[in-house]
Every structure is written in C-alpha cells, then in structure tokens.
Amino acid sequence: MENIQWSCTAFADLSVAALYEILKLRSEVFVVEQQCIFLDMDDKDVNSYHVTGLVDNKLIAYSRLIPPGIAFAETSIGRVVTANSARKSGAGKLLMNYSILKAKELFGNQDIRIGAQLYLKKFYSSFGFNTVSEIYLEDGIEHIEMTLYT
User: Fold this and answer.
1) What pLDDT digit, counting tens, does each position of 20-33 carry?
2) Buried-most residue among 56, 79, 82, 126 (CB within 10 A)?
3) What is the CATH number of the domain that holds 90?
C-alpha cells in the first residue's frame, strides 16, 4: 500500500472525529474481533502520540507512541492495529516502520519496549525487537515483552 497518508498527533491535537475513528478501530479489533472484554481507554492515551494511516480518508492503521516512564521505563509503541481490510497489504509493516521512526524523533534514540501478543513475535522480531520476558497472560491473551535496542 503506497497511498497511505501517515500522521502523528499529540492527544490534545486530535479532533473529536479522529479520536472517534481511532477508538472505533481499536474496539473493532481488540474487543470484537479478538473477543476480549477489557477497558481499552487505560489513561495512557492522554500522554501519548497517535499514529494514524489513512487511505481515502479512512483509518486503516494505528499505533500509540508512549513516552518513557508511563507503560515501561523505556519508550513504548502500543495498540498497534490494522483494519481487517488492510491486512496482508504491507500496511502493518509500514505502520511499524513509521512508528519506530516517529518514536525516535519524539523521545530520542533510545530503546523501545512493547508488550506484544505472542502470535506476533515473528512480526516484531523482523524490526529488530528481542524477547525480554516470559509469556504472560493479559486479558486472556498470551503476550511477551520485547525490546528494540538502539
């Protein structure tokens, strides 16, 4: 997918419509598709930057860039999601590349730690992330912590 329009926006600068689309996509995938009942709004959004990828003004990819000291001691990338319609298109890889670049621009060239769903270990490893924890359950889904060392 080459026609994705990427942006990275502080929470306070998000429009109401943009925030609605972000929360809608996150709920569609993390709550409905993955059948996981959890509180998605976890108080980290307000202090984070929000990466959006739009095609024809429709949100197809999203991640949240979290400053150091909030989710982990390190910078973190979370809530990484692509719309069902954009899967297998390469949008997820483009999203992660853009997210890593923006995280380094915003927070400096430092390690990035993520809490990854276990089934995505190979995907995140392809960006240089290394497993740094045992498998743990979060909201009934197996996760691992991974770190991208700089």
Assistant:
1) 999 999 999 999 99
2) 82
3) 3.40.630.30
